[in-house]
Amino acid sequence: MLDQFLQKGSHTTSQLHQLVNKELEDLGMEKVTLRAIQKDLKEMAERYKAPINFMGRFRYYTEDYTLFPENMSEKEHELIAEVLRTLGMFDGLKDFEWIQKYMIGLDADRRPPILSFSSTAELKGTQWLPRLFDVIVNRQVIKLTYKPFNGKIKEHVLHPYLLKEYNNRWFLIGAIDGNDFIITFAIDRIKDFRIMDKIAYRDYADGDINDRFTDLIGVTLRKDAKLEHIIIWVDDVTFNYVNTKHITRFQTNLIGQKEKDLRAMYPQLEGGRFIDLYTYVCELNGEPDDKYKNYELVRELSSYAGGLLVLTPKYLQNQIFEKIAAHKDRYSLIRT
């Protein structure tokens, strides 16, 4: 939007702020702050080298300049349309309605979507997604009112970094103000939040926050957690699946002497394969106590039933055995 206004004439930041918000209002979107306009102008000039005149009023000083080509090729048009269809996963959420308005007429003579996502419309807490998306984009600190499972409502001053979907549930990840402690909040347990304009936003200090989840099954990673080796046995049918769709990034099929040693140690396991998984086993390394259990990992490994057995570490094996035993006991109540 700023691009088109900078083409048409000279404007102050206040005027650009008013013009942009009028367009956003017409599209049914939430208005932006004056600070966001100022930040966008700076980014256009510094990152995209847009020829913006910053003296007095803002405008492009190069005639006919635009950040976006007016005449897109058919391929470019198709690509943009597909991106917008992909964003359609937010269908029905406030502030993302503009996507649907933009798409009217665009898809009339075009093929159906080629990417499909589970809809977020039925997931609890998704009403927060657009607002949380906005504060992360605009690098704003928030005071979050949150009620944990079986806990009391608390307030947290948070520097929000990431919205992450895991197992059909959305989570907000950020740093607590005043320290570097990264915390995860399930958005369906958020009660409210408000922007704290007087607190300066602090960026994530360790590169890309997505890297935290590369070797983690689940969304909770404590500061002192360390990677551990899990040795598993899988039967022949399960191996074909696990070998194709890895459970963890660092996953090694054990062969040679290591396999021979394991065969000698577990002669009762006929056929199948032995695999070394390298991941975060507990939320805190070396603490097998239930308090620090990685529930997502236990659930993932339990989902293969008898087709996958955990050999080591023993405390993880015990956790999974107890889960499966409890499962069996429940079924025994209803079987005749």
Descriptive notes:
This protein is an alpha+beta fold and 336 residues long. The protein contains ten helices and eleven strands. It has helices at 2-8, 13-26, 34-46, 74-87, 97-103, 129-137, 236-244, 256-265, 295-302, 314-334; strands at residues 52-53, 59-60, 142-146, 154-165, 170-176, 182-186, 190-195, 227-234, 250-253, 273-280, 308-312. It has a five-stranded antiparallel β-sheet. Strands 9-10-8-11 form a four-stranded antiparallel β-sheet. β4 (154-165) and β5 form a beta hairpin. The mean pLDDT is 82.
Mean pLDDT: 82
The helix/strand series, from N terminus to C terminus, equals: HHHEEHHHEEEEEEHEHEHEH
Strand content: 15-25%
Number of helices: 10
Shape: elongated
SSE-based structural type:
alpha+beta
Would you identify the regions where 5 or more consecutive residues have pLDDT less than 50? Answer: none
Record the strand order, biggest sheet: 6-5-4-3-7
Specify the biggest β-sheet.
5 strands, antiparallel
Assembly state of the chains shown: single chain
**Which percent bin holds the helix content?**
25-40%
How far is the first residue's CA from the last residue's CA?
67 Å
The strand count comes to 11
- Gyration radius, rounded: 26 Å
Short descriptors:
33% helix, four-stranded antiparallel beta sheet, 336 residues, five-stranded antiparallel beta sheet, alpha+beta
What would you say about this model in short?
The chain is 33% helix and 19% strand. It has helices at residues 2-8, 13-26, 34-46, 74-87, 97-103, 129-137, 236-244, 256-265, 295-302, 314-334, and strands spanning 52-53, 59-60, 142-146, 154-165, 170-176, 182-186, 190-195, 227-234, 250-253, 273-280, 308-312.
